[in-house]
Write a structure and sequence with these properties.
heterodimer; A: 323 residues; alpha/beta; Rossmann fold; 6-stranded mixed beta sheet; 27% strand; B: 257 residues; mainly alpha; 76% helix; 0% strand
């Protein structure tokens, strides 16, 4: 049985007098024990898909199951199997951290849950804040409580919707160590994030959404192998020639360009020389997930078909990657 | 799902809702009791010698059940409505939305906590007024029945308003333009028999009138209409409003998109 299954999920809602199709028939499965990354630019439909999974929103058509339980017709069992860390930093200002976790436990029918609550508090570095009111906590601390709240009922499937957006390095480390431990212990993890290095380091498999369609679905290693294996990196203050600018990934002064072989490196350097573009700190490096992501989102890369058995039949055509 | 399992499911949310208002009880219980006592002091002092509604019942004494019921109703409404709108606007309703609680459990929890706050405020007002008017309760069962029904009705109405309102000013409008006039024009401060016939007729269309009249029956053994008529009207309205609230919760009106 799959831990999570999305089958032809569509979501349409009215916006400003017209129909917006937020999801256009998304299908994929997540296997038990997997660490799955769901990536995509803002507005791609990631949060809509997570909301449908969590029962916060309803699919227009299609079906979503958690451990075989339909999220609409068998919602109670589906929600018991699911722990969701919402994207927004929300809290109940009336209660302390411990009260918040006790209340959340009780919603799942757990009255004597203090041992696990203490363990969660310790693992997330919250023990000394247990009796502090939620209002007194910093943003990072509130985020930790959100994670603890999602885990009070030891859900087999954990969903993290951009959990590290705007949090400091220390929390990111603590959080990922803890989540990785839970994953090793058998929990399935579904992660959406904007930090692609996190997805690359943590996720076994990755799905990419673009404008409500699944445009890539494969093992992280296979996705990385599908693009240029090396990148040419340098710094410059000058404008790039147009033929290079279209392919470049620019972060401030740092420019990265795909370099499949020596001939391509030579062509790139020649184009830079001809345009009079002065460069410094030239180096070659391995391509990372961000390169793959940009290539797919810009339509420069069609992901290879996944090996048989990785994807269900319904999702055998992940919308192509050639928009 | 059986009523028993819904009740069990409702317990944690009910406890949370009661804790929520109890943590700020000075504001949610103490303040309305003080307001009601001030009404009693001012109106009672000004009108005690000028108005007699029921034979043998002083005006201050006549005011007590109306004020108790008015406070009960307003606070039952305020509890579910303010809790829901606050949770919706701050976003922490998501913690309840993510749980396996059924719509029946939601209903029982929110309405139950509203009833508890309404009864606590009502009892507080009644106790406070015993300083100013000798306590009297001729048919206590009527008072209990109408007190319970009133708390449930307004708790359900608050639930509907909390689901419907997207902003605090919409909620304030509902409270100020619907709930407040309906409670004030229901005979809290007077008997509807003292009104001109047109307004007498209008009052008869207000379900709050039957709540207060039936409740007052418990205190004095006298009422403007038969308590059985009041019971019929109030019970029917409570069932209808509860059914609407349950329907909205079941369909996830404005909370599950």
């Amino acid at each position: 049985m799959n831990a999570v299954s999305f089958q032809q999920v569509t979501k349409t809602f009215p916006s400003g007098g017209r129909e917006v199709r937020a999801l256009k028939g998304v299908s994929f499965d997540i296997e038990p024990g997997e660490f799955f990354g769901l990536l995509g630019p803002n507005g791609a439909g990631k949060t809509t898909l997570i909301s449908i999974l969590a029962g916060l929103s309803r699919a227009t058509t299609g079906r979503v199951q958690v451990q075989g339980h339909d999220v609409v017709t068998d919602y109670a069992a589906a929600r018991r199997a699911l722990g969701v860390v919402p994207q927004e930093l929300v809290f109940d200002p009336f209660f302390s951290v411990r009260e918040t976790l006790r209340i959340q436990s009780a919603y799942f029918g757990l009255r004597r849950n203090d041992d696990w609550v203490d363990e969660l508090l310790a693992n997330l570095g919250l023990s000394d804040k247990a009796d502090a009111n939620m209002r007194q906590l910093s943003g990072g601390m509130k985020r930790r409580v959100l994670v603890a709240q999602a885990l009070v009922h030891r859900p087999p499937v954990i969903v993290l919707d951009e959990p590290t957006a705007g949090v400091d390095v220390e929390l990111r480390q603590t959080l990922w160590q803890f989540i990785a431990r839970l994953n090793k212990a058998g929990h399935t993890v579904l992660l959406t994030t904007h930090y692609l290095e996190e997805a690359e380091a943590l996720c076994h498999r990755i799905g990419m959404l673009k404008q409500g369609e699944l445009v890539a679905l494969d093992r992280t290693s296979a996705l990385l192998a599908g693009t240029a294996s090396t990148m040419l990196r340098f710094k410059t203050d000058a404008a790039l020639p147009p033929e290079l600018a279209a392919r470049a990934r620019v972060t401030g002064r740092i420019v990265q360009l795909p370099a499949h072989d020596a001939a391509e490196v030579e062509q790139t350097l020649a184009a830079l020389r001809l345009s009079g573009c002065a460069i410094e700190d030239l180096e070659m490096g391995r391509a990372d997930l961000e390169d793959v992501f940009l290539a797919i989102m810009q339509g420069r890369l069609t992901p290879p078909p996944p090996p048989p058995g990785v994807m269900p039949a319904a999702s055998a055509h992940p919308a192509g990657g050639t928009p | 799902m059986s009523l028993l399992s819904s009740l069990q499911g409702a317990r944690p949310l009910f406890t949370k809702e009661v804790l929520r208002f109890w943590k700020v009880s000075f504001q949610t219980v103490g303040a309305p009791v003080l307001t009601a006592v001030l009404y009693l002091l001012i109106f009672g002092h000004v009108l005690e010698d000028h108005v007699q509604v029921y034979k043998g019942v002083g005006y201050t004494q006549f005011l007590v059940p109306g004020l108790v019921m008015m406070s009960l109703l307003q606070n039952a409404f305020a509890n579910s409505s303010s809790s829901l709108i606050q949770s919706k606007i701050t976003g922490n309703l998501v913690f309840v939305l993510l749980t396996p609680l059924s719509h029946r459990a939601w209903f029982l929890a929110y309405v139950g906590a509203s009833l508890v706050r309404g009864l606590m405020v009502g009892a507080g007002v009644w106790l406070a007024t015993t300083w100013f008017a000798p306590p009297q309760m001729v048919e206590p069962l009527w008072a209990l029945v109408f007190g319970l029904l009133g708390g449930c009705l307004l708790g359900s109405l608050g639930l509907i308003a909390g689901l419907w309102a997207d902003k605090f000013d919409q909620m304030a409008a509902f409270q100020n333009f619907v709930i407040l006039p309906m409670t004030f024009l229901s005979g809290v401060f007077y008997s509807v028999h003292s009104l001109p016939s047109f307004w007498h007729g209008v009052s008869r269309l207000n379900p709050f009138f039957y709540l207060i009249d039936g409740f007052r029956r418990g205190f004095f053994g006298q009422s403007d209409v038969s308590p059985w008529l009041s019971l019929g009207v109030v019970a029917s309205v409570t069932v209808a409003v509860s059914a609407l609230a349950l329907h909205l919760l079941r369909t996830g009106y404005k909370i599950r998109h």
